[in-house]
Specification:
This protein has about 210 residues and is of the alpha+beta class. Helix content is about 60%, strand content about 20%. The protein contains seven helices and six strands.
């Protein structure tokens, strides 16, 4: 009986720790969600072990956790044009369930070690991404401006004045506006400068990447 209290406590602590990191960074699956997923996976795993003592298949319930939690994770994945967000949160939800299963099977060291590893990766990745902002990379800038070719030329000149190389440009007309996409090599700092200068132009209505 004491063992189940240890498992409940560890599931809430480990799931809560990972959930706090997600909630701190304002992600969809936060503290409460990760706690519930970890606790639920642990309980299902304990029940699958209990089922084996009654002559049942111990893998029936545990196997469904992997696929079942996948549906929860899929709900956090969002697509906006050519950008996809929420993949890290979905993977985190899946791993939290795995940690809950490890706790349920009594593998406390594995569960704690993996939780520490996930936190390390999540925090380290964010630090690394800040460094990447200073490295030039290919990206696409999208603009909506007045339907005037002189405006487009002015935009391109403004960008190239920042020592940015434009590799490809595409212009379409929709709803009486020019929709311009420019593939260029620049850093995150360059993009901030571009945004500041171009949005001051009255002919430019929006800019994003």
């Amino acid at each position: 009986m004491d063992d189940i209290f240890i498992k409940i406590f560890l599931a809430l602590v480990l799931g809560g720790a990972l959930g706090l990191e997600r909630q701190y960074h304002d992600k969809p699956a936060g503290f409460a969600t990760n706690c519930l997923i970890c606790l639920g996976a642990m309980l299902f795993t304990v029940l699958s072990e209990y089922m084996s003592l009654q002559g049942g298949d111990p893998g029936r319930i545990a196997a469904q956790i992997v696929t079942g939690v996948g549906f929860i994770g899929a709900g956090s994945i969002l697509r906006d044009g050519n950008k996809i967000s929420g993949l890290t949160t979905a993977a985190g939800v899946w791993l939290v369930a795995a940690i809950g299963m490890a706790v349920g099977f009594g593998q406390y060291f594995w569960a704690a070690l993996c939780s520490a590893g996930i936190l390390l990766v999540q925090l380290a990745v964010r630090k690394t991404l800040k460094l990447v902002e200073f490295v030039k990379h290919y990206d696409t800038v999208f603009l909506i401006c007045d339907p005037n070719w002189h405006v487009v030329e002015k935009i391109i000149q403004q960008i190239e004045a920042q020592n940015i190389t434009i590799l490809k440009s595409e212009i379409t007309k929709q709803d009486n506006y020019f929709h311009v996409s420019l593939v260029a090599t620049f850093t995150g700092h360059d993009f901030q400068n571009i945004t500041k200068e171009l949005l001051e132009m009255p002919e430019v209505h929006s800019l994003f990447k």
